[in-house]
Amino acid sequence: MSSEQKSPLSRVVGIIVTAVPSVVFVAVNAACTLWPALGAAAASAVVIFLYRLIRKQPLKQALIGLAIATACAGVAAFTGDARDFFIAPALIPVAAMLVCIGSLIVRRPLTGVLLNRVVGGPGNWYELRPLLRVYALTTATAVAINIVNFGLQAVFYVADNTIVLASIHVATGPVFATLVAVTLVFARKEVKRHAQRHETALLAPSNAHREAGR
With contact defined as beta carbons under 8 Å apart, do 112 and 131 qualify? Predict the structure, then answer.
């Protein structure tokens, strides 16, 4: 597996790609009717799935994208209402929000669980207050983003505005990409400070010993 496939940013890009069937659905639904739109969305989801397989991207990521698109199309097909294509994506922020809150309660912020190894942080990162603070703040930010995300989707679902719903779905990727980038920058700085403090603490006894021997 390549480093690109392992990187958090590539996973966020995967989220953005997952939104493509939504854009296709809205475009075709505006030009035609529900069933051609569902067919086009399903076809685009399959194409994306095959593309990921050809690029040898993680199978799990490809399957998740295909599963989300299938669930969206299935719900809309069952109800016969185009806006119901976005019910499944609207529930994702709720699940993510609950996971983030749970991780904060147990003092293992989700951003730390996912990104600490990427920044080269120590295994006991949750015991280091400055680093824990970075992960707690960014995880709390993720909670706020998901609350806003769900609230907007609920409002425009009621308004039956599928164009805005699709736009929100697409915008989710860049927003979380920014959060990941900010987390990486501040976490790496804190990891570097911790390493410097640790090195200074290790050198202090030897320096003191040399001074005493003079």
Answer: yes
- How many CA within 13 A on the CB side of residue 111? 27
Residue 125 near residue 132 (C-beta atoms within 8 A): yes
SS3 content of the chain, % helix, strand, coil (to 5): 85, 0, 15
Give me 142's structure tokens.
């993720």
- Compute CA distances 120 → 53, 116, 175, 191, whole Å: 29, 6, 24, 7
pLDDT (tens digit per residue) in 18-71: 778 888 999 998 888 899 999 999 999 898 888 888 877 767 767 877 888 888
Q: With beta carbons less than 8 A apart as the criterion, state whether 173 and 12 touch.
A: yes
- Residues ≥6 apart with Cβ < 8 Å to 209: none
CB proximity list for 62: less than 8 A, separation 6 or greater: 48, 49, 52, 53
The residue assigned the tokens 């480093």 is: 3
93 residue type, one letter: P
Residue indicated by tokens 């996912």: 114
Q: What Å distances lie between residue 189 and 121, 155, 212, CA to CA? A: 10, 39, 35
* pTM for the whole structure: 0.78
**Which pLDDT tens digit goes with each residue over 165-189?**
988 988 888 898 899 999 999 999 9
- Mean pLDDT across the stretch 84-93? 89
As a whole number of angstroms, the distance between CA 42 and CA 185 comes to: 38
Residue that has been written with the tokens 């030897």 in this structure: 206
